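Handover notes (outgoing to incoming on-call)

Open items:
1. uroporphyrinogen-III C-methyltransferase: sequence verified, structure written out, both below. Nothing else pending on this one.
2. Nothing else urgent.
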Amino acid sequence: MGKVYLVGAGPGDSWLTPSCVPGILKVADVVLYDKLIDESLLKNASEAELIYVGKAPNKHAMRQEEINKLLVELAKKHNIVVRLKGGDPFVLGRGDEECDYLLEHGIECRVIPAPTSATAVPACAGIPVTRRNLANTFAVATGRAAEGSKVPKYGEMLNVVDTLVVLMGVGKVKEITEDILTKHGDVPAAAIQEGCTKRQKVVLSMASNLAEVMERNGLEPPAILVFGKVVKWAWKRGLVRDVVEARF
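uroporphyrinogen-III C-methyltransferase structure tokens:
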């Protein structure tokens, strides 16, 4: 019985990838990978079979249940199977589901954590998710709830925490900001496209204008949303980088 590594590639370019990952890829027999911002990482897996299993909004190369079963099948045939994911595999990456399924079928599963885009991307853009005396707490939510899951209560979350980071929220930005405006009120916001890369693109506005500003500047996935006072604070302090429009 082989071993499966759930590997986080980190967000953005490969400089955020854990240093052990290239070595794991070099000895892998098979690599199942999502769409990565920096696909040059796959060059380390030149001896492995590469299988793309990425998921884009409304366009899945393979359903999660199929991925789980495939991991088990491959682990029965090979010594080292790598499941390569962007960001961290255990932060809204469904790595926990894959690991749980593997263990249920008697297959060893090792997790290689990596920086999550929830904190690394705002940092690369110059926006801290916390700030002493301004933002002592932050939360991370998905903008794309899985089938059968409850949609996060974004506005209610901002009534409890100071900063809210939303992953996979570009396609639902109007619904997200409407919920925030209804249940919390207007708040500074940012959208960061292709964070932690040379192609990073940032827009800033109040939540009430975020969808409009994003559309005007052509922001699209992969991107994350940040809501909270730290956004405007970072802008006023001159910390925010790669801004294409700021409208407060």
